[in-house]
Write a structure and sequence with these properties.
By secondary structure, the chain is an alpha/beta fold. It folds into 2 domains: 133 residues, Nucleotidyltransferase, domain 5, CATH 3.30.420; 171 residues, Nucleotidyltransferase, domain 5 (2-Layer Sandwich), CATH 3.30.420. It has 10 helices and 10 strands. Helix 2 runs parallel beside helix 3, helix 6 crosses helix 8 and helix 8 packs parallel to helix 9. It binds 5'-O-[(R)-(carboxyoxy)(hydroxy)phosphoryl]adenosine (KG4) and zinc ion (ZN).
């Protein structure tokens, strides 16, 4: 079955064609990096307007790349839950028009479920049950994945998401946007032990996260250097900050895996592209006899292929939406 996926929940306008929830025939992503750089982050109203300008071209490009037309589409899956309301509305309106005009099923998808399916697309053999860490600009969550589309929330962030912390620290240090990839690259030249930043909640009994205290520590360390007129070792600050985030993410995920007695973990979302996070996960999991799965790099950040794959799985369970489908900017993942 050929599914057209549409994703416009934040700052990427994306469309993809995926066959049987497995084979990516095309995946087109138009980023709004020019706007992000100009405004230092996502401005919801401006992002929504840009989606409106781009969505038609992006869908056409996805069709052309796959050598298909709208007549070949057998279902449309669209991110309708979790994201910026104006942005979500653009994708959902486009998906409804295609569903209505071509008389094909419409499936509303939760954005985080999309991220979970990025790993299913990359690793068809991904075992269940497993523990999934989803880390992005908008969320940080630990989930027990009992089966595809069946989840239990184990922990979440109490304040900033991990990617948000990367972006805010990069902005504070005067680095480019989005901050995650920039800090990742800069950290390779830095000493990750130069600053001993806190590992928030690493020993707390819950599996929740908090990154705002770490952010404050980094800002204070920077300000102390400035006050003392000392050189600003940006690469060391970046590497030490990244190490603290990585330690917390890996530590909590290992605890969740232990609590649940699973031997597989998956990591997904924009931050799962982080090279140090991947390295520490690989090393730690190897020592503990746990298999770890990451999406292909192109599927870590927001994309419509993961939405098409998740939509296909929901459709197989008989969960199809209709033209009354509405957007929900902030709803828990149901499973
Ligand atoms: O999944 P995504 O595209 O959007 C959301 O659903 O939020 O994730 C974007 C986030 C941004 O905060 C970005 O800084 C972060 O993922 N990110 C990274 C890396 N690449 C992207 N964070 C750390 N290291 C990276 N290499
Ligand atoms: Zn995302």
């Amino acid at each position: 079955m050929l599914v057209l996926g549409i994703e416009t929940s934040c700052d990427e306008t994306s469309a993809a064609l995926v066959a049987d929830g497995k084979a990516i025939l095309s995946s087109t992503i138009a980023t709004q990096l020019d706007l992000l750089r100009k405004y230092g982050g996502v401005v919801p109203e401006i992002a929504a307007r840009r989606h409106t300008e781009l969505i038609g071209y992006v869908i056409q490009e996805a069709l052309d790349t796959a050598g298909k037309t709208l007549d070949d589409i057998e279902a449309v899956a669209v991110t309708s839950k979790q994201g910026l309301i104006g942005c979500l509305l653009v994708g959902v309106a486009a998906a409804k028009s295609i569903s209505y005009s071509k008389q094909v099923p419409l499936i509303g998808v939760h954005h985080i479920e999309g991220h979970i399916f990025a790993n299913r697309l990359s690793h068809p053999d991904l075992p269940v049950p497993h523990v999934c860490l989803t880390v992005s600009g908008g969320h940080t969550m630990l989930l027990y994945v009992e089966n595809d589309c069946q989840y239990t929330l184990l922990g979440t962030t109490l304040d900033d998401a991990a990617g948000e912390a990367f972006d805010k620290i990069a902005k504070f240090l005067g680095l480019d946007f989005p901050g995650g990839p920039v800090i990742d690259k800069l950290s390779r030249q830095g000493d990750r032990k130069a600053f001993n930043f806190p590992r928030p909640m690493i020993r707390s009994k819950t599996l929740d996260f908090s990154f705002s205290g770490l952010k404050t520590s980094v800002i204070n360390a920077f300000k102390n250097k400035v006050a003392r007129n000392e050189a600003l070792p940006l690469a060391d600050i970046a590497a030490s900050f990244q190490e603290a985030v990585v330690d917390v993410l890996v530590g909590k995920t290992m605890r969740a895996a232990e609590d649940r007695g699973v031997t597989a973990v998956s990591v997904t979302g924009g931050v799962s592209a982080n090279s140090r996070l991947r390295q520490v996960f690989e090393e730690t999991c190897k020592k503990r006899g746990i298999d770890v799965f990451f999406p292909n790099l192109s599927l870590c950040t927001d994309n419509a292929a993961m939405i098409a794959a998740a939509g296909y799985a929901r459709m197989k369970l008989g969960e199809v939406s209709d033209l009354r489908l509405n957007v929900s900017p902030n709803v828990p993942l149901e499973g």
